[in-house]
Amino acid sequence: MLIKGWIYKNRDKSRAIIAACFFVALCSILTCFDISWAKVSDSLLESSWFVDLKEFSISAHGTLSCEVCHGVMDEGAGGHPVPGKDISSNRRPTDRFDYFRCRKCHRESYGRFLKGSHAEALKKEKVNGDIEAISSLPGDKRAPTCGHCHSSHYEEARLGRVEAGRRMTEVCGACHSSQKKTYLKGFHGKTAHNLGDMTSAYCSDCHGAHTCISLKEKDAALKACLRCHQKADASFASFVIHPASVKGEDSNKVFKVAVIRTVTVVMGSIVLLIIVFFYGHSFLWILRELHEKLRRH
Amino acid sequence: MSEKRPEEAIRFSVLNRILHLFVMAGFIGLAVTGFSLAFSSRPWAQAIAWLAGGAGGLRSFHRFFAAITYGCVILHLGWLVYFKAVLKGRLTGPDSLFPRIKDLRDFIAHGAYIFGKGRTPQFDRFSYWEKFDYWAILIGMNTMGLTGLILLFPHFFTSLFPGYFVNLAQVLHLYEAIMAVALKFVVHIVTTHLRPEVFPIDKSIFNGRRKRASSTGAVIFFLILAGGSHGGNSYAAGVELMPLTEQGRARLCLDCHRLPNINTNEGARDSQVFCLECHGKDSCARQTGVSLKVDMETFGSGRHRYQACITCHKDVAGSPHKSESGGVCKDCHYLHDDSAAGDPHLRVQCQACHRKSPFNQYDAERDLVILARKDDKGLPLALLDHGLSDVSDGEICARCHRSGNKVGAASSVLPGKGIFCIICHSAPLSIGHWSFGAAFLIFLGGLYGMFFLWFRGRIGHEETSAHRKISLAGEGLWQTVFSRRLPRLLSVFLFDVLLQRRLLKESVSRWFSHSLIYYGFLGKFALACLSLFSYGLLPQGRLSLALLDKNNWIAASLNDLFGTIILLGIMIALARRMITRPSHVLTEEQDSLALLIIGMVALSGFVVEGARIAVTGIPSYKAFYSFIGYPVAGLLRLFGVTWGDFYGYLWWIHALLWMSFFAWLPFGKIKHIIAAPLTLLVREAGEKQDMEGR
Questions:
Q1: Which residues pair with A210 in a beta bridge?
Q2: What is the DSSP letter of A158?
Q3: How many CA atoms within 13 Å lie on the side-chain side of A12?
Q4: What is the CA radius of gyration of chain B?
Q5: Which of A152, A278, A279, A293 to mutate to probe the B interface, most B CBs <10 Å?
Q6: Does any CB of chain A come closer than 8 Å to the CB of residue B461?
Q7: How many domains does chain B have?
Q8: Structural domain harbouring B281
Q9: Same domain, B529 and B631
Q10: Which of chain B's termini has less CB crowding within 10 Å, N or C?
């Protein structure tokens, strides 16, 4: 009753309070964009010639000595590159390193990798041409080996499903950026990546861990759906998980994506028009009523 | 049928009131849970998800609220059937929510009222906006329900439709939700409760009565939380450089490959030793023969001699042995504010001015002016001296600012902005060029004259002594600020000064045209002040960078928006003066002149902006956020002139126009910008003082 009386007595003030609330809300919306006072953070050190022992010692490989993976580095052919002279230092360590050495411990993962589409792409790359030319591609978009996805010195051990899944989105998304974007817009990405729902799907849940197979084939896609959605059928599997047209897609998907995009644009503009109209209507109406009211006083 | 009902007539039945309550609760619940799912990358959404117990909880709550809301819809539809079939009621007619031709007529008549022509029409029991509210939610709930059901039971629905209909259902569900929330939470609340006629609340939906009853106040929910991150700064201490020696013994891997702690002297030295093993020798050279030997004489006596190499050359120590970022200065050094090097210099690498080499080039890929790797004759440069140039020498500017330069710089060197410019642009706290100072002096003189005139009048009982008058006025000010009158003054400031209540009382269209100019300037001023404040607080902050950079999408679009608003206001005001001429508009020469000058300032501002975009050649993906300046730049390009040579003149025209306006301000009629708020406040304070005196 107290509040009620106060509001009726102090209409100007209560209006001011509401205006202030709107203002605060507006400011909060602004801060929801990615602007903040905080400094743009530069990555501290990307230099790969130096190993940060603080991070290395707590990583999964932290107990290994250098020689376990790198062998004995005698200067000269095959061993340590000669500083300034050896052209090999112009290649990335991921191209130089012999990842067959990983198989010593990671036999299962290595086997799966060999069966997958990344290994297939690697084979094609080796047949088709010189690595030097490909390695200068922007964004490092060439067939990946172990080191492209996993950090050999700093990879943390014993990550949970959610944490591993989140990092997976970033790592896969570094090359497959349109897939990452559509995944994060979809239901799986929102629940699994953003909200940490363990029962939802991360990249490898559909595409397989280390095999990384494409699901353009309908049968393969249905098989992937069936892992979680037991009632799925062929029609269910025709849901477009990554609705972005990428070069070399079949016409069926291009059509579906076009329909989805058209509906999005049409619906979006209708919604925008309606909102703009009614906001303008309300605003002008309030102006007129305020004017009338001020006149009366 | 628009007969007069008794004041206490029942407007909403008990069933309708209950249904409204449940739909309201369900709708708010649906909005909160649904948007938390849709915008799940935002921190506030994750906070709500955490409260609801994760994504699963959020989903369950969403379905629960959906059941409540949709249950209400079904109950309502059932009641309508019962009402028609059993009670033999009428579902159409003026007493119902069924749309009629009269609603269209009402809408047009009400629109005319809004534009100041005629009166509010006599509505039926439900007005057209109430009917819109009703039908929007009735149809909306059903389509939301249908798309929601598709998303809830995809297995069943994909047996009827192809799978990508689920995609469509997702899109429709999201967009309709956005529309529903944008309309219900704003338009519905505003038109039914916050409108001046019904403010603060129309309780009829809660107590059913027609007459406005008392309320417990309006409640607004805002659950928006902001996120942010923090970055650190690294500094290295300085002592004498240690002699560089090689170690004799056989090395272990980590003797070299351990990451040195560059924050210590040891680490800085280790880093230098590692790099100088090659870069200290004469034999270190590119295949082209350009030496890569670091000139230790200049580096060892330079400012950076105690820094590790990798403190600046961050990404170079790796294979392949090349750098993407080059030397990084901004980790330790702040950006310049607008005084020394204006915002166009945000796309100039520090080294372009601060290194001794006089050759610069434009890197289109990064949209950055960088130190050239080749001199004028195309001979490669080594750039290994690490020496710094003396930037206080104005000659440095002529590296780029000369006619025929290739880096997109104006051919003349322009002064930095002065504090004058802060009304519209981010500017430093300094006067700037001497001509700005002259205009400022005239402005101050005029201001002094204004106050001098005011103080010639009587204050209290004092008539002659200026000293006594000032002291009395100061006393009055003090008494007012530290009294219970302060809230009253603040409300005058808010409503009469900021919200221009007096103008609105006079006429809506006058308020509108004046407000466009006023809020356009206020918006630009607020933006400029924010950038000054933000730069002072944290020069390297993300916000400072965004506001200082005219090509940043936020700054560019907001500045162009405010400029457009000002120009629009000027045009409407001029049209009111020249063409429509309502009876109460008195056109004076001064008014038109003031409008003309402001209009010219805004117009020339857009031309200068266009010329800047044309000269600097900002790539279109960045430039199109300046939605006026970019088309203007396109127009200017049609002339086929080297705009770099004319940019200086355009800039000066804009600046001189603004300066003349500013200098003229305390003399002409536009002094109301200063005088009107003061008069209003003084009058308010004076009135109360008199009352207390009695």
A1: none
A2: S
A3: 14
A4: 35
A5: A278
A6: no
A7: 4
A8: 258-312
A9: yes
A10: C
